[in-house]
Design brief:
GO terms for molecular function: ATP binding; ATP hydrolysis activity. This is ABC transporter, ATP-binding protein. Keywords: ATP-binding, Nucleotide-binding, Transport. InterPro entries: AAA+_ATPase, ABC_transporter-like_ATP-bd, ABC_transporter-like_CS, Metal_Ion_Import_ABC, P-loop_NTPase. The protein is of the alpha/beta class. The chain has a domain of 93 residues: 3-Layer(aba) Sandwich (Rossmann fold). It is built from nine helices and eleven strands. It has a six-stranded mixed β-sheet with strand order 5-6-7-3-8-9, sandwiched between helices. Strand 1 and strand 2 form a beta hairpin. Helix 4 runs parallel beside helix 6 and helix 6 runs parallel beside helix 7. It is globular and about 50 Å long. Bound molecules: adenosine-5'-triphosphate. Adenosine-5'-triphosphate binds next to helix 1.
Length: 275
């Protein structure tokens, strides 16, 4: 399969450095290449969906962005730049890239208030502890974020007592509290019912409209909000295709990606895969 040329024609493109630039990124885990010579560039303000079957390497790619996984040296030259820089302090990096995943939600089993969950984003922690110095500015910012996400009414509730949809929104608040350049959503809509899914999409659309990049990792086409114009397909740890959404999301491409006959339907700016 010929890799399609990368779509660099996106709204918000500027001459400033790419948000993420990877060349020849190979990651080995358990003696196996789980990412294999991945090269891609995502611009500041660009909205992208990364789609692939289970085990294709989507989460590993995110862990590579956040320096949890490290690429091996490449003969053709390894590049792993974020905002034009190759070296980052991990804490600074985590503030630059706000991440929300289903895994994160499961770590909040303690009795933590919604306000403290959002504030914990300042400390990359799971809750607020005695050694964390919460300033009035931090608290003001956390309350602003809750307001932006339309969940101020949940401020004093315990996260363990919220519905999945409410809790997911709170975790977005934790990721946004630093004002990151990009919001990375890893399988964000898992376990949401139809109403929660609708309100989740609307809030992600609002964030996309506020100028932050949305990088959405999913195996569900329905998660792709209309603001996302570029789709990257990933298979067996490699970029399978990368280009404009309407050119990539075809019956033939999705059928080949998932090794299954798939019909792609489009309605009201959203896509759906029928099997
Ligand atoms: N730390 C690790 N050690 C060994 N193997 C790993 C590790 N991390 C990931 N893998 C393997 O790499 C492959 C890609 O995993 P990854 O979690 O990135 O896939 P994914 O596309 O996110 O899948 P899913 O949609 O199921 O979440 C899988 O085969 C997985 O078992």
């Amino acid at each position: 399969m010929v890799k399609m040329t990368q779509n660099m024609d996106f709204p918000g493109k500027t001459d400033s450095p790419s948000l993420l630039e990877l060349k020849n990124v190979t990651v080995v885990r358990g003696g196996r290449k789980i990412l294999d010579s991945v090269s891609l560039s995502i611009g500041q303000g660009e909205h992208v969906a990364i789609i692939g079957p289970n085990g294709s390497g989507k989460s590993s790619l995110i862990k590579t962005f956040t320096k949890e996984y490290h690429p091996i040296a490449a003969v053709d030259g390894l590049v792993m730049n974020i905002m034009g820089k190759g070296t980052w302090n991990v804490f600074e990096l985590r503030k630059l890239l706000g991440i929300v995943s289903g895994d994160l939600q499961q770590t909040y089993y303690r009795q933590v208030s919604v306000l403290d969950v959002v504030l914990s984003g300042f400390f990359s922690s799971i809750g607020i502890y005695y050694n964390h110095k919460v300033t009035p500015e931090m608290e003001t910012r956390a309350r602003e974020v809750l307001e932006f996400l339309e969940i101020s009414h949940l401020t004093d509730r315990l996260i363990s007592e919220l519905s999945s949809g409410e809790a997911r929104r709170v975790l977005i608040g934790r990721a946004l509290v630093h004002d990151p350049e990009a919001l990375i959503l890893d399988e964000p809509a898992n376990s949401l019912d139809l109403k929660a899914l609708h309100s989740f999409r609307e809030i992600v659309r609002k964030i996309a409209g506020s100028g932050k990049s949305i990088i959405l990792v999913t195996h569900t086409l329905e998660d792709i909000i209309p603001e996302i114009n570029r789709v990257i397909l990933i298979r067996n740890g490699k970029i399978f295709m990368d280009g404009k959404k309407q050119e990539i999301l075809t019956d033939a491409n999705l059928s080949e990606l998932f090794s299954l006959p798939i019909e792609v339907v489009k309605k009201n700016g959203y896509y759906q895969a029928l099997i």
